[in-house]
Amino acid sequence: MLKYQNEYKINKEPYYFKIKELKFKLMHLPYFMNNDTDIIFFGHTHHFETKYENGTLYLNPGEVCARNKQLTECVMLEITDSAYKITYNFRNPNDIIWNKKEITYDR
Fold first, then answer.
1. I need a labelling partner for 92 at 20 to 30 A (CA). Which of 27, 34, 64, 71 fits?
2. β-pairing, 72-79 with 83-91?
3. Per-residue b/e over 90-107, b at no fewer than 16 CB within 10 Å?
4. In CATH, what is the architecture of 2-106?
């Protein structure tokens, strides 16, 4: 992947950024899972996963393309002063209607 980094503007993992007072970490491979930010987005496993532990939200949105399983997944994260609200959306690629599950963690 490093040989394509400049051509496609791929950031070195993990990629850190900040929005207002919240610190984020974004990475594909779940190798840097220490809680040095408020929110960690990761992937690679193709499975939806979330937990809130020691002040850090961990979030893997799953697999949007249904390549490894018959499930299309995505998440929406809403951040308020008091909570993280995750809406996990999923469906069989042949279905029209999306299913959803909401998970809320108090901050």
1. 27
2. antiparallel
3. bbeeeeeeeeeeeeeeee
4. 4-Layer Sandwich (3.60)
